[in-house]
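Fold it.
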Amino acid sequence: TGAKVHSAQQILDADKYENDPELEKIRRERNYSWMDVITICKDKLPNYEEKIKMFFEEHLHLDEEIRYILEGSGYFDVRDKEDRWIRISMEKGDMITLPAGIYHRFTLDEKNYVKAMRLFVGEPVWTPYNRPADHFNARAQYVKFLEGTA
């Protein structure tokens, strides 16, 4: 699918994310120049219900999406070559990179809590394009990648 999940627990320490030299190294190497931390739970996220629905709506982005789980857990769902869902369980210490153009969605698990670092190359653009969004160049490039012709 092109989605890369790194169980970063061996090299990264989610408890020390604010000054972890290994995280700094990854950010430098991959040019993740921008970052913030989002807490997704009823008490901390404004417009919680609306946001949860939006995150679970199948969509794509025109840029790579990078998440590093600092606390809690949840699921990223991505589509395989045959357009079937693959559920990826994410927990503290995991990092995921979703390529531009991949259809995906996110949901919490039964704990209803996740704190995640959002990383971005350049200035963040969070615009989700709900399916169908096949007309975007990022989608065409991703499909080529899936077909092995990129």
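The two ends are 13 Å apart (CA to CA).
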